[in-house]
Amino acid sequence: MKKKLFFVAAFAFVSVALLSFQSTPNENILTKTEKKEGWKLLFDGKSMNGWRVYQNRTATSWEVANGELHARGSVTDKTDKRSDLITTDQYDNFELSIDWKISKEGNSGILYHVTEEFDASYKSGPEYQIIDDLGFPEHLEEWQKTGADYAMHLTTSRPTKPVGEYNHTVIKVNGSHVEHWLNGVKILEFQAWTPDWYALKAKGKWKDAPGYGLAKKGYIALQDHGSEVWFKNIKLRKL
Description:
Layout (H helix, E strand, L loop, with lengths): L1 H22 L8 H5 L2 E3 L9 E3 L8 E4 L2 E4 L1 H4 L8 E3 L6 E9 L4 E8 L12 E5 L35 E8 L2 E6 L2 E7 L3 H9 L15 E4 L6 E10 L1
Antiparallel strand pairs: 1-13, 2-5, 3-4, 4-13, 5-12, 6-9, 6-13, 7-8, 7-12, 9-10, 10-11
C-alpha cells in the first residue's frame, strides 16, 4: 500500500512539474511562426549583442542577468556612469514587441528613429513613456504617463500592471502612422509630420528642439533615466 501511495504521489509531482514547465513560455526566442512572419530577435537573453551605448559613451549601468536587460539605476550603480542603450542597426518602418517592468517610483522609455547628433537620444527620437504612474513622487501630466507619446500625444486608456510585474508593449511605425499598444490594447495612434503634428510640437516641450521627431529612420533606444527597469523578449519585424 505504501509503495502504491509513493508511486501515486510521485506521478502527481511529476505531472504538476510538467504542467508548470509547459505553462511557462519560452523567452527571448523566436517561434517558427514568428520567423516565417519576418520577426528578428533584438535581445538574445544572454548578451548585449546588437546593442551599444548611445554615442559610444562609457556607461556601467546596464547588465544582462536572468534573461533580462537590466538598467541598474542610480540607486544600485553608484558610479553614475549612465546612458541610454541603442540598437546597432537602424530602422524606418517596423513593429516592435517588448516586455518591460519598472521599479517603484521609476521612470524610463522606449524611443525610436533616434539619431546621435544631439547630447541626448530623446532630442531626436519620439518616446513611448514608461513610468510608475501611481507611485512617482512628483505630479504627472497626462503626457508624462505610461504609454504616451511623450510630451505629444495622450493615451485613450492605460491598462498597466502593478509595479514589479511585466507589461507587454507593441509600437508600430509605418510611414507617418504610429500606434502604441499596451498589454494587448491599442492605447494611442497618430499621424506624424502633419500640420497638426507640427503645431503640437511647436507649442509644447519640443518647441526649442528643432530636430525632435524629424528623422524617418534611426535607432531603437532604451532609456536610462536613473531608475531600475528591466526588458526582455525584444523582437522587431520590418514593415
